[in-house]
What does this fold into?
Amino acid sequence: MPTPIPRVLSIVVFLCLAWPASAAGELTLWYRQPAVDAKGAEDWNQALPIGNGRLGAMVFGGVKTEHLQLNEDSVWYGGPRDRNNPDALKNLPRIRELLLAGRQAEAESLALAAFAGMPENQRHYEPFADLTFDMRHGAQATDYRRELDLARAVATTRYTVEGVTYTREYFSSAADQVIVVRIRADAKNAVSLTARLRRLGDMGGRYSHYLDTVVKDGDRGVIIAGSCGEGGVRFRGGLRARASGGTVSVVGDNITIENANEAVLLLAGATSFYHKDPDTVLRQTLDRAGALHADVLTARHLDDYRRLFDRATFVLGGDSPAELPTDERVRRVADGAFDPGLIALYYQFGRYLLIASSRPGTQAANLQGIWNNRWLPPWDSKYTININAQMNYWPAEPCNLAELHEPLFVLLERMREPGRRTARAMYGAGGFVAHHNTDLWGDTAPQGLHLPSTFWPMGAAWLSTHLWEHYLYDPSNRDFLRRAYPVMKEASEFFFTYLFDDGTGRLVTGPSTSPENIYLLPDGQRARLAVGPAMDSQILEQLLRTTATAAQILGVDPEFRERAEAVRARLPKPTIGADGRLLEWREDYREAEPGHRHISHLWALHPGDAISPARTPGLAAAARATLEDRLKHGGGGTGWSRAWIINFWARLHDGAQAGEHLQALLAKSTYPNLFDAHPPFQIDGNFGATAGIGEMLVQSRTVATNPAEGVELDLLPALPPSWTSGRATGLRVRGGAEVDLEWKDGALTSAVVRAQTNIRFRISAGAAATEFLPGAQGGSVRLDGALRAAP
It folds into this structure.
């Protein structure tokens, strides 16, 4: 029997579950109908996501038939491979020679033959399973409401059929590693249903695909088993049911509950990627969860989730139609309405999604987070590391979810050995390298045959800058720096051999690309491959500078520091063209697509730190001109690109433009369930826009590369004019501090800085400025709107 719930815990859970909708409304997505389109067919982009970092579900909220589309983050097709092209190294000098000679077509043809991976593509992410259950009641419902409560990470479907009100709750518990579905009615013995665990994916229908076995699990459950291609993971999925006041039976693979007062379905998954014996682990997980009362499962889930979610709050003043369903609010914004409550909800939804898709011990969030229903998903639902995977983690540090960055670091560490092989095989270099994609196995060979993207060699370098960012937000954590430094050093060392002199004394990359963009040669020829695109030098300058600083802090490797500085000194610097824009390539070429979605040559503005209005006003002005030109030609057409633009404008301290583009993202690139629309769905836009909101509220940068020399804090640096009043708490900043802010009539009224270190903070807000030096163990200061100390 399940463990009885203790009386004290009962009170806590009752208070949580009885939290009135009016109080929770600002943190709730809700709808008046199931996730269906105008024709009544299921619409995945209206379903609601739940997840525990590893195990996720999209909940459709059907009345008669419910559907949970399921994912487990290690269910990828196929196993690890060495795809490095054996002809790459011997053809590298020739490709460079052709590029420098302007013989573009020959260089690109040779690169496609000699550099492409064998085979061309990496592995892809797959659906895990589908849980469906048919309710034994009528199909005509009234008082329907479907919602996702971000404060509790619980989805709920509630409706009335034939005078009986049914309530279903769904959550994915990180504490107990199960998805819980709890079904209740306000009449006795009114819950009857038949549930099945299958594997449908986007083929739909009634029949499972790509399963090896389905077996009964005692008299209350079923277990499915399958494998994912040659060398791929083996997986198990289990579904168990229990009922209060009714019966449970299993016939074939059908679990039937009859005449219950309450039913609980527990779903778990286990794979050989995590476990040598996934079958045993699956059964043990279900046994442990099954021994707990549903209220205890709920309480354990809430305690785990709120430990993360409750760290930060954000409220915008102004009129918001919280009485309207979320899909209607999104449509209103698309029609030109301003909805400050929806902006705050979107910010917290981004934080929710990161908690739900990336936890220590899980895989990194991929292009779709963990939610994917397609057997062959867009871009394979992999890790695109020429911006998209990195953007997923932009909110981790500033939005107070630092430990959720960990899966990205583990992925980067997994890439080191494959990356060493790629560095040697393709470039004859030490260190490790990755191109513009990787997968579950850390594959580092080039992906695909798309010349504007495939042969870009900066993936590992960019990812390695995330290690330094994590350290900057907690510079007291030397243990992490000691872990991060060898990865940063090895990523840097690749370039000591790989870079070459372009004939002007500069050290450049090549063959490379400015990710996914195409330029025009003087004769009008379209060119993809390049030597020394601006983004490469910007990433490498920051990597070498911060890695040398890390070595200095740790007191190691003086020879490496000297070499890193010598290489950094010879990198091309950001260059302003004749029209006042930053150059994207080595020469002042015209773009084939002036409004291209990637704006890679502004990397040093964001997420990099080398361009800022205060320190490099000339380069900042050129960045603004670049941004204005892209937008004039239709830039920002995808959700994630618009999210990057929000961050650019915030870094340029232009709150009006940042707010305008956030409004455009909500209006043009947001699905009814608030998922970001590339289109199709990509989660990076959600995360990028969430980070952009944080950048509007507070920005931080170190005075010098070493954070011990101080940190500058800029409060409300890019506040949109329409954000006249508001409050935010728990915003994390570099240097190891949290910031609370409140403002009215567009001006700061109060701030609190809580530091965990004794680093000096230089704080500014408009024309006001002050300094704060915490004690040896940290400390806090409360300031008024003029940055004067307040009681």
